[in-house]
Structures are given as C-alpha cells and as structure tokens.
Amino acid sequence: MKFFIDTANLDQIAEAQQLGCLDGVTTNPSLMAKEGIKGNQNVINHYKAICDIVTGDVSAEVISVDYQGIINEGKALVEIHPQIVVKVPMIEQGVRALRYFSDHGIRTNCTLVFSVGQALLAAKAGATYVSPFIGRLDDISTDGLGLIEEIREVYDNYGFQTEILAASIRHTMHIVNCAKIGADVITSPLSAIKGLLKHPLTDIGLEKFLSDHRKSQ
Ligand code: E4P
Prior knowledge:
- By secondary structure, the protein is α/β, with parallel strands linked by helices.
- The chain is built from 11 helices and 8 strands.
- Strands 1-2-3-4-5-6-7-8 form an 8-stranded parallel barrel, surrounded by 7 helices.
C-alpha cells in the first residue's frame, strides 16, 4: 500500500519524507489556503517546492468546474513538474475531463468521491486514482471503510486499473483498516502515519534493553 501525506505544509512533507515511507502528497484548495498560498506564481512555486522534497506523485487540484477550464488548468499544472497528478472533482464536466486527460497521457486523481457509482464512473473515464473520502462519510454516520470495500470489489470484478486512494483519513486505525481491506493508497495527516509507530510494549522493551545495557557496562 502506498502512503501519501495529505497536506501542503512543507515541514510536515519533509518530516514524512525523512521517515522513508512516503510515496506521494495530496493537496487541495483548503490545504493550500491553510498554508497561506495565494496567487498563481506562489501556487506554482509551492508545487515545485513540494516536488523537490518528495519523489512520488503530487496531486494538485483544479479550481475550474467547466470542461475547458479544467482541461486548461490541468495542462498548466502538469507543466509545473512531471510528478504532478491533476486532481479533478467528481462532477459531470470533471468526468469528461478525466477521459480527455486519460486519452492524452495525463495522470489524474478523481476527488470528492462518496459512492460506488461515482468510483465506477471515474474508473470508466480512465482516472489514475479515485479518492473516496472516508472520514467525511464517518462524520455523517455512514460507513467510510465499507465504501472502500465495495469499490475494491467492483474494481476487482472488472480488472479496473484505477487505484483506490483512501482519503479524508482521520486516525491511525483508518490506515490499518484500509490496508486490511485492500486500498491501494492512503492519504493521511502526518499524525495518523506516526501513530503507526506507537506501542507501549515497544517503549517498555526498549527501556529494559537500554537499562540492562547500562548495568552491564
Ligand atoms: C484528499 O485528497 C483530500 O485532500 C483530503 O483527504 C480531505 O480530507 P478532509 O476530509 O480531512 O478535509
């Protein structure tokens, strides 16, 4: 399973990269705004800075919601760096654009996916990644992980190559459970990734090893 970090914060991206387990980055307009990135040139520079830190895919989201606007923005985004993947919303004009990008060798991440039907449509249109938002589904008492399972089943039924990118991860157990049910990728805050490190028996065991070592000196 690939690990992406879901942030536009350069320090967190660098920390995740240094951990040695990072496969890519996802951003969105809210995450870019949180870092205070505004203005076309600053946005371009920020994506370049992210691509300089990581070696994997970096999802950059379009703002347009009309077909031609999405196409124009997507083409401009992929010019920034070869690692850029165009993030396209699950709307009718977005699906049309996914097909265009796929036919022209441009990699995509279909975002804001909340149902199996939407995931099926994204795969049919040739999306590279599909992003079901599991945390936002959980927030409204709907089974986010269940959606990942259903998409896995449908994609496996027909051999779709679109990768299931579990998004809107809220905590460490989301990552563990996504791995158990066969998500191809998770995109997560750094805190949830670092949560995978933790076990009290590891801390107790290490302390004992170190104290025994000190006693034997
Ligand atoms: C996915 O690519 C999105 O950027 C992200 O996972 C959304 O997460 P949120 O629901 O925490 O905003």
